[in-house]
Write a structure and sequence with these properties.
Length: 416
C-alpha cells in the first residue's frame, strides 16, 4: 500500500505533527479582497493542497518504513516545506550514513534489506535509506530550494564508494520496469575479460567475425543492430561482456532485463530510447557524447519470421528503434542474441544495411575443441566424437558432470 492515500470523500484533514521540530500546519492564507478562492491577498495562486483531500492511514499491512515515507511527505504535501531534492547512489562507503550533519533523528528503521532514517532541522525534513546491496538514496524537503539543496549536499557529499579501476571491470546499466515507479535504471560493475583472452573460446569463423566487431569504433557504426545467433552454451553472452569492455571508451552498455515489456510499452521504450546523456573521455568533440548499446538476450519470439503476427507492434518498434524515426538523432545500437538460425528470422531483421554484424556463434569443431582442451591441460578422453560447445568444454575441464537418475526406466505408459 502506498502512503499517503488520497480519498475523494470527507473534508480535507491536516495530519497531526509527529513531534516538535516538524511543522504543525501550513500558514493560513491571507484574506482575499476579491473573494476568489484561488487567490491570496497579493494575487498569487493559492496553495492547492487545501483543495485536495489529504489523509494518512496506517494499518497492519504497513511497516515502519511506510510510516517514515508518510512523515516525509506530510510537510511537502501541506506546503510547509514545498521544495524537494533527491539523490540516488549505487555504491556507498561502508561508513556513510546519509544523515545530514545538522539534523535530529526522529525515526530509524532497520530491516533485513535496508535501513531508513528520518531527520529534521529548522525548515527541512530528510529521509535517508541504505540498502544491503551497497547503495542508497536521500530525499529532502525544505522551506526553500536553496535549503533543500544545501541539506542534500550535506547528506551525500563524499559518501560514494571509490573503486580502484581494474582492467577487467566495466560499468553496465540495467533497465527494468518496476510495478510502481515505472522504467528504472541501475548501474552495476561486471567482470569482462579482454578479447585476446577469450578469443580461443570461439571457432575460427566466429572469431574472425568477432575480431572485426571488437575493433569497431564510433565513426564506423554502419548499422544499428548486432545479431548473435547460435545454439545455447556457445558463448554469446561472454562475447557481449567482452564487447562492453572493448567499446567502453566510446559506448555505454545497457542491459534490458525485460525486453518483452520494453516493446509492449511505448512509455518504457521512449524512456530507454531517450536515455541519459553519457559522456566519454577527453576534451575532443567526438568524445563529449557516448553511444549506447542496448543488450537484449534470448529474443527469439521477437524476431522470428512469424513475429509480426504473434507479437503485434513489438517487432515494428524494435525496427523503428534501430533505423526508424525513433532512432533518428539517438546514437543507439541494439545487440540481440537468439538460438534461432538466420533462415527462421523475419526478413526485415536481417535485410542488408540494418545490421552492423550478423555472427553465428556455434560449437567448436572436433579439432578446435581438442586444441582448446589441450591448452587447458585436459586429456583427450574428456571429449566426445563431434563438435563441442563452450559450455561443454568448460564442464569437461572442471569435471562438472550433470546430476542424473540411474537404473532402468520401465516407462510411464499413458500416465505422466
Amino acid at each position: 500500500m502506498t502512503l499517503p492515500r488520497q480519498r475523494p470523500q470527507g473534508p480535507a484533514t491536516r495530519p497531526t505533527p509527529v513531534r516538535e521540530g516538524l511543522p504543525e500546519k501550513a500558514p493560513a492564507p491571507k484574506k482575499n479582497p476579491d473573494k476568489s478562492p484561488d487567490k491570496v491577498a497579493d494575487g498569487r495562486p493559492g496553495d492547492p493542497w487545501s483543495k485536495v483531500p489529504f489523509r494518512v492511514t496506517v494499518d497492519d499491512s504497513d511497516t515502519p518504513y511506510d510510516v517514515v515515507d508518510a512523515l516525509l511527505l506530510t510537510p511537502f504535501t501541506t506546503g510547509a516545506q514545498p521544495h524537494a531534492r533527491h539523490s540516488r547512489l549505487d555504491a556507498l562507503r561502508e561508513d556513510a550514513t546519509l544523515v545530514p550533519a545538522e539534523g535530529e533523528v526522529l525515526r530509524s528503521v532497520v530491516e533485513d534489506k535496508r535501513e531508513s532514517c528520518l531527520t529534521a532541522g529548522p525548515g527541512w525534513t530528510a529521509r535517508s535509506v541504505r540498502w544491503s546491496s551497497g547503495g542508497g538514496e536521500v530525499t529532502v524537503v525544505a522551506e526553500t530550494a536553496e535549503l533543500a539543496t544545501k541539506i542534500l549536499a550535506q547528506a551525500t557529499d563524499g559518501v560514494a564508494a571509490e573503486e580502484e579501476p581494474e582492467e577487467e571491470k566495466v560499468s553496465v546499466g540495467f533497465w527494468y520496469a518496476a510495478p510502481q515507479r515505472g522504467p528504472y535504471r541501475t548501474v552495476r560493475t561486471i567482470t569482462a575479460e579482454p578479447w585476446e583472452a577469450v578469443r580461443k573460446n570461439y571457432s575460427t569463423s566466429a572469431a574472425a567475425a568477432l575480431d572485426k566487431l571488437m575493433a569497431v569504433r564510433r565513426t564506423e557504426a554502419a548499422g544499428r543492430m548486432i545479431l548473435l545467433h547460435g545454439a545455447p552454451g556457445t558463448g554469446k553472452t561472454t562475447a557481449l561482456r567482452t564487447l562492453a569492455r572493448e567499446w567502453r571508451e566510446w559506448c555505454q552498455v545497457d542491459y534490458v532485463l525485460d525486453p518483452d515489456a520494453l516493446f509492449s510499452s511505448p512509455g518504457y521504450l521512449m524512456e530507454v530510447a531517450m536515455g541519459v546523456e553519457y559522456h566519454g573521455h577527453g576534451d575532443e568533440d567526438e568524445n563529449k557524447r557516448r553511444w549506447r548499446l542496448l543488450l537484449l538476450e534470448d529474443c527469439d519470439e521477437l524476431i522470428r519470421g512469424e513475429a509480426k503476427a504473434t507479437s503485434g507492434q513489438a517487432l515494428s518498434r524494435l525496427l523503428n528503434l534501430t533505423d526508424g524515426l525513433l532512432g533518428q538523432g539517438r546514437d543507439v545500437l541494439v545487440a540481440i542474441t537468439t538460438n534461432e538460425n538466420l533462415a527462421s528470422l523475419h526478413p526485415a531483421v536481417i535485410r542488408p544495411g540494418r545490421c552492423l554484424a550478423q555472427i553465428e556463434v556455434g560449437p567448436l569443431p572436433r579439432a578446435e575443441a581438442q586444441a582448446w582442451l589441450d591448452h587447458e591441460g585436459v586429456e583427450a578422453g574428456k571429449l566426445g566424437a563431434g563438435a563441442a560447445t563452450l559450455a561443454e568444454l568448460i564442464a569437461a575441464r572442471d569435471g562438472n558432470e550433470p546430476v542424473a537418475a540411474g537404473g532402468d526406466d520401465a516407462g510411464t505408459g499413458l500416465y505422466l
